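Hi C.,

You asked whether I'd gotten around to modeling the 184-residue construct. I have! Everything is below, sequence then structure, no commentary in between.
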Amino acid sequence: MDDSIFFQRQSKRSYLDREIDEDVMNRLLEKVRWSPSCANKQPWRFVFVSDPAQKLRMAGALAKGNHWALKAPVLVAVCAREADDYTREDDPVAYYQFDCGLGTMGLLLAATHEGLMAHTMAGYDAPKVHEVLDIPEEYHVLCMISLGYQGGMDLLDDETRKKDEATGTRKELNEIFSFDRFEF
């Protein structure tokens, strides 16, 4: 496997107790800001949480299986609202959700480029995230991300360590790609 940023990126669960330097964070934000979006709408809103008291409040919003994320120096809520979507009368696609995926991938790759690890999570209680972060009702919380410097396996409990030690797999190429027509 080559050493491109795509293969360096990992979604592990162990974080060092180390804050992210301001200059690193500023470079990260600038890279994410340039993520592509449909018609350049940039519908994403990233809420970065690093205040210890606020992170403690976020514990009630994360699923129990994601409490390892509280050790990360930063938690991120990715939010968007339909009002910021690009729309076509002949197409019902919710592009703002796709765009937030692009912005999230931008964050994951930018984090890897800056020597950080970012792990996306779906295990959260959206109404609680709204409450803790004062997110307006019309915004959807599309995912949560933990962000920080990767720690060692020795920092994890047994159950979480087993998840991180499992070998990552991917579907075979012919299961996800076809050419000239839909053949799966």
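If it helps when you're writing up: The beta strands are 45-49, 74-81, 117-121, 139-148.

Thanks,
B.
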